[in-house]
Amino acid sequence: MTATRRNLLALSALGGAAALMPRSGQTQDAQHAGDVTPTIGDIVRDTLPVNVTQTGQRFRPPTRIGLGGVPIGNGFAAGTDEDAEATLEAAWALGIRYFDTSPWYGLGLSERRFGHFLHTRPRDEFVLSTKVGRLLTAAPQPPNGTMWHDPSPFAYRYDYTADGVRRSIEDSLQRLGISRLDIVYIHDLSPENKDMGQRWTTYFDQAAKGAIPTLTRMREEGLIKGWGLGVNTPQAVLRTLEIGDPDIVLLATQYSILRHDEALTHTLPALAPRGISAVIGAPLNAGYAAGRNRYDYGGTIPSGMGRKRAAMEVIAKKHGIDLRTAALQFAAAHPTVAAVIPGARNAAQMQANAKSMEVSIPTAFWDELRKKNLIAQTAPVPAPV
Fold this sequence. Notes:
The protein is of the alpha/beta class. 34% of the residues lie in helices and 12% in strands.
């Protein structure tokens, strides 16, 4: 069934439990016979890591590195349309074919910039994800206190109902100028979300009756290829596994070379048995692993993190690599991870991130990090290229 705006608007909320039942027989073991590279892989550079597909497997993006849309939405600092276009041009030229954005990023600005570039590319040659949960409305000026610099003049409100999800997707398609989405994430259901705090459970209950069954039906109807959650903490993901059947989850700030114990021990093992993959957002902890004096999205650098980063940088230099390269490859090495999506503000940052995925990291580097307890002993690491 072809996805159209009319289809999306006409969908009604799904009340039956059948559509929420987990699909059986799905696995994320990509080593079995019969695996094939994705058709998009034919146009991806040989040097970038790609996912393989297997009959019955849940949908995954084609490239194991994508482009996150926070900086293109003027996260942390303002950027120009020209910089955004150059970033996307560089990503495409490098073989990146997975792009992630959200209505929240720049209050629509990121989606418009992504769409301006992508709407002229063949639709079957890239994977696009965006998010639902906030609806934007025109306002004299954007609200104060967000992380966006020079955002679009919109206000926002939370809405995880079935009608809210359909309207959010329709609005996103209009901003993007693109006919369909591949992945839709339910966004920011988290106690870390300052708008919600402990009220996130009230919004989750709304999503349980609205967003989750609606996106399940959209997937079953072929309107989207997969759905999940995009969150900065694991609580909503684990609760969703009890009532729904997501395909892929975006774990932002939760699995990085600097901080990974909880995701490694609890979240990722909960996904793997059901064949659900993870996309890792903020794999550089919002630039901290690349040397910026900024950690994640809250602005506070955890106690002791400076010493940890400095120790890692010394070891990285000893082995002839940089910490950004190690951080990106570390986040992508876990078998449950389908892609990492660092942001980039300009073409140079995009090129540096892609180049980091091509570097062969000596095994001795990882051994030394483990010996000094800088990474978990059981954390998967990439094999040398």
